[in-house]
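During data preparation, we tokenized the protein backbone, and the record follows.
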Amino acid sequence: MNPELEYQLMKSQASELRAAAARHRQVREAQRANKSERRSVFGKRRPA
């Protein structure tokens, strides 16, 4: 395979991996936020 083509392919794959990692981080942060919100809601409802 052409070395320049291989280099471009590697750059593209690295870019896709970085984007996937960023999406994964956003999902994990959203899940953490939802868990903390749920705890506070349940905490408020129990005493009532």
